[in-house]
Design brief:
Elements (H helix, E strand, L loop, with lengths): L5 E3 L2 E5 L4 E6 L4 E6 L4 H29 L5 E4 L16 H6 L5 H15 L7 E4 L8 H11 L4 E6 L6 H9 L3 E5 L5 H7 L8 H11 L5 E7 L7 H10 L4 E6 L14 H22 L4 E2 H11 L19 E4 L5 E2 L20 H5 L2 H7 L15 H4 L4 H6 L10 H16 L9 H5 L8
Parallel strand pairs: 5-6, 5-12, 6-7, 7-8, 8-9, 9-10, 10-11
Antiparallel strand pairs: 1-2, 2-3, 3-4, 12-13
Amino acid sequence: MPNSDEKIEGLVVHSIDEDNTALLDPDNVFWALTPKNAEGEPFIANKILSLYQDKKEALNEEMRQFRFTTELSAVYIDPTDRCNSNCPYCYVPAKTRKYGAQMTTEELRQVLNKVLDYFAGRERKPVIIFHASEPLLAKEAVFSAIREFKDRFSFGLQTNGLLLEKEDVEFLKEFRVGVGISLDAPLRKLNDKTRPSVKGGNFDAVLRAIEWFDGYPGLNVISTMTKFNIRSLDKLVRLLHRKKVPCVLFNPVRLTQKASLKVKPDEAVMTNNFLKAVDTAIELSKNTGRGIVVANFSNVILGIVAPEARRMMCDISPCGGGRCFLTITASGEMIPCGEFIGIKNSSGGNIFKTGIKEAMESAPFQKIRSRFVEKIPECDTCLYRNICGAPCPAELGSMGNSFNKAVFCEFYKSTIKHAFKVIAEGNEKYCFREEGWDNLVYNYQL
């Protein structure tokens, strides 16, 4: 094989690990893997290059469409700015969490009707995710909205679990609401360092709620990776698997607010432990007959095997903020995503005074959509630029320049390399729920 990162007729020859080499077009993510001990030259010339030339133009256009024409499909609604917890890495400013606005039932109803107006005539249901600080502080308004609009939206809810009662869980399951519940560690003492509340933390409340959900397929656990929990991720995967949780999402802490710097993990330590957790999830899914998915790693796998099938739009460029989704705050401000709550001049207008169409055309939204990897030094030549996307513009902007590479650049590179390794080993299907993997159809295959 030629040396790593040389080119063969437009494909970059890239070493993945000691056993495997990838041939990759970073512009459209056409790829092929070959073992390093194979007699590769005739195979490359006769098979891969022929297939690449046949598919190149169509893949270029698919990637262009995906990056620059994908329409709005989801709206995050923050029914309240307030929170009953005080997580040190929260992207919502502390003053807002304590004294912020909260929607009434009627105000939330007005917002949802305005969202319906924007999506009028489309076949697919738009997605509404109740998010923010802690949406269940506005439980009556949120549950009333789910009942009234159940046939017109697909609903999701992100919660710290502190206010969940058993009857709430039954309600959410009945209306098939996707639920993200926050848990940072498998031990109470460790978890409650970063998920504190007046009563100590959310560990007991979340474990109790997980028991009530009892394997509900719409449940996801969301964990923020910090210097405190980073060495326990694999143990958290094992705990959640025992509790029949089908999916966990490990988010690197965002540094949008300066307070987050105090809990930032060492990047190399985070990388090693995240990949250990990924391998643990694959092992459990492969050997026990019941799967658990690490969602952000699954999205990286999709970024390679089916780029246009990705649903987490932080790792594509331009990112999904103000393009595929937006956030409506409790006071009605429309911002590209929740990470912009504490950032000045991010609003595209107030939904109580104007509409989503105007927000999508506004200068702040256009500014976010104008940030893409070809404009970012280092990213512009990176082989993984259309798998990673250099997140996050809000985080980087708050640190001085949104056109910098990602804070955890090496973490993302290592994760993508590991994804190629998982594919080479034939274990990629264990990174998805069965129905998700079975729905993929081959575009090209040797």
